[in-house]
Every structure is written in C-alpha cells, then in structure tokens.
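Hi support team,

I submitted a single chain yesterday and got back a structure, but I'm not sure I'm reading the token output correctly. Could someone confirm the output below corresponds to the sequence I sent? I've pasted both exactly as they appear in my results page.

Thanks,
R.
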Amino acid sequence: MAVVTIAVLPAVIRPLLEGQLPDGIEALWWETGEQMVELAPQAEIGWFDMFDKSAPLESIRRSTNLEWLNTIFAGVDWMPLADLRSRGVQLTNGSGFTSNAVAEFALMAMLAFARGHADIVRAADRHEWLAPSVEGKRELAGSKVLIMGYGEIGQAVGRMLSSFRAEVTPVRRSGGEGALGPEEWRSRIGEFDWVVLAMPGTPETCGMIDADVIAAMKQDAVLVNVARADIVDQDALMAALLRGRLGGAILDLTDPEPLPPEHPLWDTPNCHITMHMAGLPTEANRKVAAQRFIENCGHFLRGEPMVSQVDLALGY
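Hi R., thanks for writing in. Yes, this is the structure output for that exact sequence:
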C-alpha cells in the first residue's frame, strides 16, 4: 500500500494547488482558524498562514507529526523556531515573494514624505488650494540612503532608489564591495539622509536602532522601517521626533499592532504610519507561492533540499 503524506493547507490557495500536487500527498483544506487548529494534529506538511497568529501558533503546537512547515511570509520571527528545530521540522518561507511590492511601497512612502504628499491630499479633501511652498520638501536625487539588510527586499529598494539617482549604501554581514559591515555602519550613520530598515527580525536585530543610534543620525534624516517593529526603540524615536532631533519616520510596523487610536505615536510630528500595508499578499504572490510549494513537494518527497529553506538557528 502506498504511503500517503497528509498536508493541511489553506483553502484560499486550493484552486492553484488542486490537481497539481504530486502522488503521495493528500490535502486537507482549512478555511478558518478553528478548522486549521482542528486539522493540525494530522499534518505532516503544514501551511498555517493567518495575519492573526494565535491559530497558527496553536496549530504548530498541536501538529506533533509535522515534518515540514511552509509559509508565504518572509519573516518567521513569530514562529517557535527553537521548538521546530528540536522537533526536526523543516521550514520554508516566502523569501522573494513580496520583495518588489515592499520595495515599491517603501519608495512610494519616501517620495510622498519628500514632497509633502499627505498635506496635499488633506488639503484636497478640504477643497483648499495650497499656497506654493518649498518648506520641508526634498528630492531623492542626490540624497544618501543607507539600506540596512540587503536581501531581496533591500536589493529591490536599492535598485529603485538608484534609478532616482540616490546614492545607495547597503549594510551586509560580510561588508565589502561598497557595503558597510556590522561594525562599520554605527560610526557612519550620521552621513545619511535616509536610513531604510529591511533586515529580518532576529534576536540580533532586536533593539538595534536604539536611542544612541537615533541621536547619531543627521538631524533632518528620515528613518524608514519596512522590517520589524522591535528593531527600533519606539519610545526613543518618538522622543527624538518630538524634540525636532530627527527629520521624520516612515513606519510600516509599530508596537503594538493594530496601534490603538489613543496611542501618542499617531500624533508624533513627521511620523508617517502605513499600517503594515507594504507586504500584503497579492494574487500574483499567491500564484508564485503555489508553484514554489508544488516544486518543494517534489523535493520533500525525494528527501532533497527545498527552495527557501530557513536556517532555524539564524532565523532566516
């Protein structure tokens, strides 16, 4: 009798997978968090993606037969990586799926900040014709941009900014070839007009942009975070913005999320909050994710290394 591997998968992607999974894999489909949790104990392959992480985390806990966990998300810092590692579970992520989308979003937000677009939109809502003003306006051309984290998202941001004639300097673990290394960027951060955070969230990056780093930045510099909220000391950032010690911040991530209406970050001067919209999955993302999953099913059944397999010790 042929061995069957049970895969517990999201129904939203069923039309892209059904009929294409290799022989030997039987799919069980979940539509709600409750269904996911109920099916999880049967999973040898799991795909437990939701924006609210409570059901996925409970499903991971309950899936005691799990051998391979897949996610469309690039960031996996919300998962119990040490537990997965001790259980021998292989993890594949969505590295590269949303790199262009996130980079486009970051560039859009930077351009909007540079040209005061939010004020223009608000004036239009009020039917008010703004008087011409260059106060606070800037151009990307000729500006110096530090990109911290030069994976697929960071590289995509760098390519787009270079086409706007910005001077891009990446931060890489290895340094070299025009990049700054882990020990170099702190002493150079005061040179940059924009600091873009695009690194994965790991214990190493938590709190990296602290009060000292913020104090060392140029007074009119703008911090752009499309990475993880805990990379930035949010209180220190608010204090710097309130004192006029920093030019601004574009935050796609905040702590907490959703940010409560009464939270002071909303009213912090020159702080643009984009509500974790940068990397929302699109239909195109789902198609690519489905094709990679089908490809990885073959690798999994043959005992081969899979595409976008996460190093559970490093966290990416």
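A quick pointer for reading it: Residues 99-273 form a domain with the Rossmann fold fold (CATH 3.40.50.720). Let us know if anything else looks off.

Best,
Support desk
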